Amino acid sequence: MARYPFLRNCLVAASLWSTMAVAATPAQVAAFFRAVQLDDVKKVEQLVGREVNANEINPVGGEPALVIAVREDAMRVLNVLLAHPGTDLEAKAMNGNTALMMAAFKGNKPAAVALLAKGAQVNRSGWTALHYAAASGDGDIARMLIERKARLDALSPRESGAYTPLMMAAREGKAEAAMLLLGQGANPRLENTEGLTAARIAERAGHTDLAAAISAFKR
């Protein structure tokens, strides 16, 4: 590559163009996010990376386009965004959610598959996609995450109670997800900031059968 400085410079310029911030007008931003929500591929292709940065945060709702596409099941636009070289797979909404976390929360398996294939991050500090899969009771997505070394006993932030994915499944009464996590090695003896185990959390939430099943589980 050193023998071809012009080619090298062109590649560098292309890389910078794909990730650089785009100074978009409010009207362009509004049009872009409306197109994302409506799964309008042509409009998104026209705007993304040219007039609107792929990782722009929507002023209404505080989410990047990738998260919105997953939430709205706008799969055609999701694929366009994933193919765009400037899209950050880990772009966060103002509440900290990533696209993979949203896919887990919504039970959007095709989106989760596509994001994981592109290299979306499974483990992160605080809330994780596995927390969300457990809370929604989506066993398929939970299995995919576990196969990719998701931390079974990841803790949510202390200010939110230091919940594990198992605790989230217990709180929401998602027995299948809870049993899956236990079967994979999740620790049922861990306590949250209130000193409650997953079984106690299930019991408090009125899921007495699940509480009993967690208590009776033998590794």
TrEMBL record:
Segments traversing the membrane: none
Listed SUPFAM superfamilies: Ankyrin repeat (SSF48403)
Signal is among the record's keywords: yes
UniProt cross-references to Gene3D superfamilies, sorted A to Z: Ankyrin repeat-containing domain
Signal peptide (from-to): 1-23
Protein keywords: ANK repeat, Repeat, Signal
ANK repeats, residue ranges: 95-127, 125-157, 161-193
Entry-linked SMART domains: ANK
The protein's name in its UniProt record: Ankyrin repeat domain-containing protein
Annotated source species: Telluria aromaticivorans
